[in-house]
Fold these 2 entries.
Entry 1:
Amino acid sequence: MADETIEALLLEQRKFPPSEAFKKRAHVVGTHLYDEAHADYEAFWARQAEELVSWSQPWQTVCEWNPPFSKWFIGGQLNVAYNCLDRHVEAGRGGKVAIHWEGEPGDTRTITYAQLLDEVERFSNVLRGLGVTRGDRVNIYLPMIPEAVVAMLACARIGAAHSVVFGGFSSQALADRINDASAKVLVTADGGWRRGEVFALKPQADEALASTPSIEHVVVVRRGGNAVDMSAGRDHWYHELMARADERCAAEPMDSEQLLFLLYTSGTTGKPKGIMHTTGGYLTHVTYTHKYVFDLHPDSDVYWCTADVGWVTGHSYIVYGPLSNGATQVIYEGVPNFPGNDRLWSIVEKYGVTIFYTAPTAIRTFMKWGTQEPAKHDLSSLRVIGSVGEPINPEAWMWYRENIGRGDCPVVDTWWQTETGGIMISPLPGATTTKPGSATFPLPGVGAEVVDESGRTITKGGGYLTLTHPWPGMLRGIWGDPERYKETYWARFPGRYFAGDGAKLDDDGYLWLLGRVDDVMNVSGHRISTTEVESALVSHPSVAEAAVVGANDATTGQAIIAYVTLRGGAQATETDLRNHVAKEIGAIAKPKTIYFTPDLPKTRSGKIMRRLLRDVAEGRNLGDTTTLADASVVAELQSRAAQSTED
Ligand code: PRX
């Protein structure tokens, strides 16, 4: 991150303590949880696991730590679906609304805990009927419809691991993920609604299925109503299988370390990593953080997280955390600007949402749309508002607080990753004095420190964010690649988990997250690796060479900028190449701008100078270019970048 940004953050002096009114009802005021966890973090997590999660067999050992591999609640048995559904129904809360679902066209479904349990039991039997057994992998490629939640919980119920692939990913990306996981069954839909139109999913899935030999059956949910091809024997309609399925399916106890899911995320190489999460520790972590970070009171709150289930936020804070806590939540299918720019605020008003969790990119987009949009609606039900996915700039934080939170809802900026499973650094809304743009402190039970280049802990100033001891929701590894797990997270600073993020500690010990320090970009809160986009570009027959950088962007956090050299005599337009990337990876990975250049700036040893390209893309003055093989390449690019900013 540029020095001027760090300076600007350090000038931020505003502080917001929790109000007396908020504190009166809050689960946590004061420091008692921090003190307890500080004294013995394992005992602290054990207490959370005991209080918040139902076990069918108690564990013998809280944590086994063979760095860098950890196991939690060893010997314990539980079923995640039981925790998310049955126990609430058994406690007499079957009639409570689990999901207020709102389709983009305006159709709605209200699903109680009892109804969700019925649906999950039936679908568990459907999966079993298709040959899925404990330990198998099931791929899920769905829009934001309740069946996504049902499919995930049904997997958990029978001990199959799910691997959800975001519906915006291309068929190629889906095929890669299915093959890496050797999934047996794919659950998809005909299509879903987005921006007032149906987007087709099944045809994409069909393309992927041409090269996924492990898939034996495909279950298709009808949502879009678009025409699809069904391959006899392989493809089945969800509603037809459900109509025939047995009603009851007991929740089988699973080992605490049973694989719950794989979720693929971008790393610094072209190949996405299958992040592994297991059962007991993960559920404890997400249940605990969902309860305390959002100060959830399940009897009165209506919670809404705007993420997609295809990302980890959807796994932890739409499916597992909220349902384990017995919350009532809103799930919305579509985009925030259909039919108007106030859609989200109309939903808040309609359902009386009290807790709202979204991403900084969305907040910056709302800022652009103007304060008149939220002002059209009564948002007085809101009491906690959260942010996740990327650094939030103080200006966006303040706008969020003032215009969505009426100036009196605590703002919780939550830092975490696919790998951490759940929230790690965040205020507790009744206990923490916040500063705009700071994620404040590690949660009770979490050890985080900032270190310098050589791994020495620093107590003030900038460095690298590391986690100092294991936590229950931590990834258990990378599917099929333990070496990559060790190298990626544990090699840079021995004994510590290296998150890949820069961070700064201010005079009061507040943490300020500064974004990625590796070749991972963060575009609208989505992680995309520069190498992945480069590989997609060079797979186009006209492209000889490509370099990709993430440049600061006022709305999306970072934007993808590509520099491309075409093969001699080859022709390709910017649109051709952007579409090609969308086909290879998905629309989210399309470069915002592509510069065609006869050469890329390289060092004399032939390494592409990405840092320099980032400077060019962000319009900064270039420092020393003497190590370059040909400095005129950069001068040329710079003048074109300047031109395109003026355009
Ligand atoms: O760079 C950090 C950023 O998002 C990365 C993790 O991305 P992903 O695994 O896709 O998970 C996103 C949702 C948890 C981190 O390495 N990040 C996430 N939350 C924040 C953040 N950066 C700054 N502040 C945050 N609150």
Entry 2:
Amino acid sequence: MYDIEGLLLNVLILAFFLLFVPLLLKRNIKSSSKNQTKWIFIVSTSLAIITCISFPINYSEGFYYDLRFVAQIIGGLYGGVPASIVLWVVTVAYRSFFGGLGAYSTFIISTLILILTIFCPFKFHQVSIKKKLMIGALFSIITSVSLIVVTIIMFDLVVINFADVVHFILQLCSSVVIIYILEIIRETSFINKRIIKAEKMEVVSHLASSISHEVRNPLAVVRGFLQMMQQTDLPIEKRKDFLNISLSEIDRANDIIRNYLTFAKPSPENIEVLNIKEEMQRAIEIITPLANMNCVEIQTNITQLFVIGESQLLQQCLLNITKNCIEAMPDSGKLFVKTIEKNGELLIEIIDTGKGMTQEQLSRLGEPYYTTKGREGTGLGMMAVMKIIELMNGRLHVKSKLNQGTKFEIYLPLEVSEEVAATLEK
Ligand code: ADP
Ligand code: MG
């Protein structure tokens, strides 16, 4: 008979430590450094090896096998040289603790994996998924074959038994499946990041035209005044007035461009305490040119509150929503922006008096590529919004009535820390 329980337990151990833990890391620890994630991965893989050795698969002939080498191979390939060394030490040290002939064969095979992963001729992180799967499969086959050869020599057995064959297949399959799932996890998080970036570029290019329009006005005013000042008989008082107006117009143009650039330029990921009042005002300043073009009046009622997050992402979220609202009011309308504290949470309300949505449209909001704007739309704006709110541990509620308007409610956890108190005192 064959030990199904032991087998399932080993597979579960690998799935937990090699798949679930990295997945949890990717989803929850956004701000942690690369180094930190790497070490958590190494520790998790070490635990996988220790647990695998502690709960081996017991074959009827009295042989014990487990999937420790799968963990060592995958950990070494993904974690690089430090991981390879740590995992080798863990495997050899923990196995020799139990003694027996198996400790010698473990030492030989484990050292072989150490050499294979360190001197792997490919840069594992840079090759395609197909190559990664092939490298994983190859390493697993080399390990299994060497293990068989080593046991034959050590135990003086010439026949390859059933357990060896099962172990061979099991090791191969689990290596390939785990590498494949790990790659899917990496790819998904990579695609999510790319979509948010791509959508931002789209918004940036849309806003650019309204902004350049808005900058041209002050320039025209300044030009007009400068032309008038060419007249030599202008009284000194008038000259002063003209100069003052010109200067303030130049400042206004400068402000518009500066605000736009803080949003447009890529930012390094940095999470900080955000002053909602400042953030909202900046977003409104950026969107105002677009509102002016559509004759949309913006009304605000904003309180000073603090949340934790990344300024650029929050800006992107606010701009995507307000841009949609303004686009829903192509010829005039009103946009209300309010922030209040509600049940210990921050509530941002963004309300338009635009075309609104049907129940069907509302239910599809946030679906990738869902747009009713044809070539003008990307259908990625609301998706990015939802992603960003999720990242900030918030919630989004949308209510809409056809031909009457739409209301966006964003709930975000408030930050009430000493840091905030310090900022307030300043
Ligand atoms: P896009 O703006 O590129 O179309 P979005 O993801 O930003 O993509 O929006 C998806 C769709 O949701 C829009 O095409 C529109 O039909 C609808 N929508 C979003 N916001 C509003 C709004 N404030 N009023 C009416 N419809 C909206
Ligand atoms: Mg949009």
